Amino acid sequence: MTGSAAPTPPPDTVDFGYERVARDEKAGRVRAVFDSVASRYDVMNDLMSFGIHRLWKRFLLSQTGLRPGQRALDVAGGTGDITLGMAQQVGSTGLVVLSDINAEMLRQGRDRLLDQGVVGNVEFSLANAEQLPFADQSFDCVTIAFGLRNVTDKAAALASMYRVLKPGGQLLILEFSKPVTPGLGPIYDTYSFSVLPTLGRLVAGDADSYRYLAESIRMFPDQNALADMMRTAGFDAVRYHNLTGGIVALHRGWRY
Question: Is the dihedral of CA 65, 217, 51, 204 positive or negative?
């Protein structure tokens, strides 16, 4: 009697919100989400956060330490909020590269910056955060705002961002995190899973993408776990600042 064949092991999977998908499928699923919401992305950000996302991004920009003539990289830069601010900081003699894996989001960012007259010191790159197509030690500052949670291999992305930083350069990660203010969690959960999908349906015609947004936030590492991941990738002097009761956190790390 022959023994039965061993069951085929399940494919390598990763989280896509609360769903598990094959590792090689996540990037495409995320791309579809942002293809769907790109044209209404900025409007939805204002509605979802009551405009507070502008303050979070302003705080990030206040921490870059960039000076005229320096070079910066905005990973998953989308519609260009952070790129715009850094372009002003580095001036006409500096350079900011806006990169994103999603071509439609990158187009939105390019058009927005051109409309605001930002030319000459900004370049655009269709790029995967896990394999940034830039030379080692190319940038004085690297930022990623609300993009890391959508990356399939976050450790690879952190390593890639470390590689392109110059010695003395800084990585800033602005991302949704875990509320720390007592009593805020249940209110935030109700808002995330009831209000956000409804707004998405009414304004962007897409409730599912904003349901994914809420789920992806819950699956993202908390403040201390992300700090540990940054240290593992090689970053020094890692610290974080909780914003709006921990709904968002700004993580900072240096390459010494």
Answer: positive
CB 88 within 8 A of CB 113: no
- DSSP letter at 149? G
Look up residue 8 and give its amino acid: T
The torsion angles phi and psi of 249, rounded to 5 degrees, stand at: -135, 145
Q: In this predicted model, what pLDDT tens digit does every residue of 25-65 receive, in sequence order?
A: 888 888 777 777 776 777 777 778 888 999 999 999 999 99
List, in order of start, the domains of the chain with CATH numbers. Answer: 13-254 (3.40.50.150)
Percent of residues in the chain assigned helix, strand, coil, to nearest 5: 50, 25, 30
- Under a CB-based contact definition with an 8 Å cutoff, are residues 74 and 83 in contact? yes
Mean pLDDT lowest for which of 4-8, 70-74, 99-103, 202-206? Answer: 4-8
The pTM score is 0.89
99: closest CA among 119, 126, 79, 118? Answer: 126
82-91: average pLDDT:
97
Alpha-carbon span 245 to 243, nearest angstrom: 6
Using one digit for the tens of pLDDT, what is the confidence trace for 126-161?
999 999 999 999 999 999 999 999 999 999 999 999
Strands of the 122-126 sheet, one edge to the other: 122-126, 95-100, 71-75, 139-145, 165-176, 248-254, 236-243
Q: Which alpha helices (H) appear in the chain, and where do they start and end?
A: 23-37, 41-49, 52-62, 81-90, 103-115, 154-164, 184-190, 196-199, 207-219, 223-232
The CA distance from 213 to 150, in Å, is 9
